[in-house]
């Protein structure tokens, strides 16, 4: 199983100054319920889209989690959608743990995996673009993304009246 301690991830050049006690690891089956609860707590506030248990089980291999003292504090998925393109999705950190660098580390770990498998670009659709802009993503028109991306949108309860913002980062 792939496990990285936070101490191993944080570099001297990082803007994260404090060391975190948790670990980043690939998600496992037992993480599905806490991930669903975390993601859907934000969905209830209409800050992100809900995910069903079925979707999470089907895509468990795409997820990383940040775990601290046996508790899932955050999650992030990288889903390959095309030859050179992946989507960052279901990205969430418990509200009481935001601003500590956990989200940056989850995102960096997912991006690094994308690079390792040959992904050249990553995009996300979000209601909160500021975090991603600080991480090197730039706003793009949704229409500039390949049609393959829209397969997920058609299943969304907000389609076609979605106001998510598309952002892209070259890896």
From TrEMBL:
Keywords: Acyltransferase, Transferase. It comes from the Archaea. InterPro entries: Acyl_CoA_acyltransferase, GNAT_dom, NH2A_AcTrfase. Gene3D superfamilies: 3.40.630.30. The keyword Transferase applies. PROSITE patterns: GNAT. It holds the Pfam family Acetyltransf_1. The keyword Protein biosynthesis does not apply. Residues 22-160 form the N-acetyltransferase domain. GO terms for cellular component: cytoplasm. GO terms for molecular function: L-glutamate N-acetyltransferase activity. GO terms for biological process: L-arginine biosynthetic process. NCBIfam families: PRK07757.1. PANTHER family: AMINO-ACID ACETYLTRANSFERASE, AMINO-ACID ACETYLTRANSFERASE NAGS1, CHLOROPLASTIC-RELATED. This is N-acetylglutamate synthase.
